Amino acid sequence: MGASGTPARSLGLVETKRVVLFTEDNPLVLDSGETLAPVEVAYETYGERTASDNNVVVICHALTGDANAAGHHGDPTHPGWWDTLIGPGKPVDTDRLFVVSSNLLGGCQGTTGPSSINPATGTPYGLQFPLFTVSDLVKVQRALLAHLGITQILAAVGGSLGGMQVLQWALDYPDEVGHGIAVCATARLSAQNIAFSAVARAAIMNDPDFADGNYYATGKGPDHGLSVARMMAHITYLSEESMRQKFGRRIQDREEPRFDLGVDFQVESYLQHQGKVFLDRFDANSYLYLTRVMDYFDLFADAELVRSQLAKVKTKFLVLSFDTDWRFDTSHSRGIVRTLTAHRVPVTFREISSPHGHDSFLLDVPEYHKTVSAYLDHALAETV
Amino acid sequence: MRADHDVIASLVPSGARVLDLGCGDGSLLDELIRRGADGLGVEISDEGVLACLQRGVPVLQDDIDKGLDDLEDDSFDIVIMSLTLQAVHHPALVLREMNRVGRKSIISFPNFAHWRLRAQLAASGRMPVSPLLPYTWYETPNIRLCSIKDFEALAHAEGFTVEERILINEGGAREGAITQRAGNLLAAGAVYLLSR
Q1: Phi and psi for A305 in degrees, rounded to 5?
Q2: Quick check: A379 contacting B, CB < 8 Å?
Q3: How many structural domains are present in chain B?
Q4: pLDDT tens digit string along A19-30?
Q5: Mutation target vs A (from B32, B34, B53; most A CBs, 10 A cutoff)
Q6: How far is residue A5 CA from its own chain's centroid?
Q7: ipTM of the complex
Q8: What are phi and psi for residue B87, nearest 5 degrees?
Q9: CATH number of the domain that A233 lies in?
């Protein structure tokens, strides 16, 4: 049940819209100084804007998300990736909030990325796509809001890479974000985190069908590498306990093991399936670029810069972690809390108990949802 | 407003950056923020943290017995711990951490040497129960009971200077009628303003 007290419902049918935000005449200037045009963005909106636009919530998606955060595109059994959290009567309550969700720059679900056509060559960018930063991701989201006529947001909300964008939003646009909700996020990846990214990229780039990223016209692609990358990443999203509960050492479709080198254990079958279905919805080059964005992200690297940035920040934060998340464990969230608190930025922090590891942020964990509900409820009440 | 909160609030200058350890439902912080303070709470219980969220009081859910690792030295003007000292496992550690992160500390606690408690124990031979210590011995969260004299000894050992001591009655309000010297016997509790 959401803070409004109404029972949680689904948004039902929603649709993705597209808009070109940057053109040849007005290109996107990236952090690196390079320019990019055109930039098209796929986005969805839920709920109604108030006359004063005091109820705008921006959703920032994680590594492999898309614009369809909530509701569905025709099949109610396949709702958006954050449908547990967003909808009428849910913690991000679309009966009261206006929600904007967009696909990230560099993605492959409608927003310009490495699989888009490079106007200079008439073929997909591939690895000619420029490298970009989390600031660039936020810059594009802000351009979308400007297109919608929105200059102030009540809250930016995101998990994992989404939470990293939430933090960046506040630092880059200190007057424009009332609240930031960063769930199982980090201010910088650890060596272990980068190591996982590196192995994922090696799997993709060493696939014989990768063709230096120019695989679009070949009719093949680094499917093997991309599915291995996904399989490995998926392990890091679950906890050991949740894997034990879900699969244990059970054998797939049989009583007795086959004793061969094929897929025998349930957990193998599950990962193989996850790797396979991922191929239908994700582009290998996007995976390379978006994992690289995370590796280079180091929000609080420059102490002097952070001091001057945080002195201007008017955003209040809710920082949440999960006790079984080992992808970005609680120490990552505590690091964020420590820096924000040291610079007098108001923060609320909870480590939520959940057996589901990093994936918890996508699931219906009651204490987590209660927390987001209560936080947004007060945030909204404060504005009226 | 709770009477002991009123006493504490009178010691907090407007505009101060305040940390409240064991802030419960955030009611004291809420009041201090209303009066112009910049406040942060630390609370261990789920119910307390949710109540803080509902009030919009910033709070870190944490166990103060494990120290205040997420908070930097000197990052607060005042660190408050109201009627919580007697419920922590490691009072000395907690006092040391308060001294580290805050320039001044305000601590209130029930005085176990209060004459009424002494009399209860002497007369009935059973653990005393009072408005400030309302639990029976087998369910009380209050595990580190001390007297005013005991507390002052520890505070001095931890390098604190007593700037002000306010004696409180069983309702938590300022106890005006008794002399400071008789506090250990006649006051139900005390609020201390401590500096380094």
Answers
A1: -65, -45
A2: yes
A3: 1
A4: 999 999 999 999
A5: B53
A6: 28
A7: 0.93
A8: -110, 0
A9: 1.10.1740.110
